[in-house]
Amino acid sequence: MRDAEFFRRWMTAAAAAVEREADRLTELDSPIGDADHGSNLLRGFTAVLATLEAEPTPAPGTVLQLAGRTLISTVGGASGPLYGTLLRRTGKALGESAEVSDAQLREALSEGVGAVAQLGGAAPGDKTMLDALVPGVAALGTSYRAAGSAAEEGALATVPMQARKGRASYLGERSIGHQDPGATSSALLLGALADVAESAGAR
User: Fold this and answer.
1) What does the alpha-carbon distance between residue 191 and residue 95 come to, in Å, rounded to a whole number?
2) What is the pTM of this model?
3) Cα separation, 44 vs 42, whole angstroms
4) ∠ CA 30-33-37, rounded to 5°
5) Spatial distance between the Cα atoms of 46 and 67, rounded to a whole number of angstroms
6) Closest among 122, 89, 123 to 107, alpha carbons compared
7) Is the pLDDT reported for residue 37 higher than 80?
8) Considering only CA atoms, which of 149, 117, 133, 144 is closest in space to residue 183?
9) What φ, ψ does residue 3 adopt, rounded to 5°?
């Protein structure tokens, strides 16, 4: 079972991953976006950590809903609403239980990913964060590490795709050959979850 502390550690690990990879995320965003994905997410997750430290979060769902609200209010562009929706919907699905099972987390994340797809009007293959999130969450049924690996593979698979959603879609065929920054940061998020789960003794 996973308690609120597990989810706070996940957000801390995600923030560390974003900080470590912020320059790379911005570099990936430069040819097909606004060249601010890394800096935007870094600002957002820094705010998430400060908010989680300042406010009580007695349940896993509370942690994720608070993190999601913070990202929406601090991250510019599309990333804030999309990541905020992912975490808020996942947190809402988890409810107010003090502990949740791995199966409950997998189901809740599936709801969160569905909400992202609805908000962005996107699907796998459109060269968006869904190309990492969908296979990553599906692989949670196998293990946390499998989820992180599947998400990373999904992000790499965006390189030959032509973007059909988001700012990159305006480039048409010129978007081909570039790895999607949103898929890349989504892989970081699930990779951070795998790291925290493994440190807690989960497979």
Assistant:
1) 24
2) 0.95
3) 5
4) 75
5) 10
6) 89
7) yes
8) 133
9) -100, -175
Give per-residue burial for 172-183: e unless 16+ CB within 10 Å, then b: eeebeebbbbbb
CATH superfamily of the domain spanning 2-198: DhaL domain (1.25.40.340)
Angle, helices 130-139 vs 102-120, to 10°: value is: 160
Region 44-60: mean pLDDT is 96
Total residue count of the chain as it appears in this document: 203
Average pLDDT over residues 146-164: 96
Place of tokens 């992912």: 86
Closest by alpha carbon to 67, among 129, 8, 22?
Answer: 8
DSSP state letters, the chain = -EEHHHHHHHHHHHHHHHHHHHHHHHHHHTTTS-S-HHHHHHHHHHHHHHHHHHS---SHHHHHHHHHHHHHHH--TTHHHHHHHHHHHHHHHHTT-SEE-HHHHHHHHHHHHHHHHHHHT--TTSSSTHHHHHHHHHHTTT-HHHHHHHHHHHHHTTTTPPP-SSGGGGGGGGGTTS--HHHHHHHHHHHHHHHHHHHTT--
pLDDT tens across 97-133, in order?
A: 999 999 999 999 999 999 999 999 999 999 999 999 9
Helix (H) or strand (E) holding 144: helix 144-156
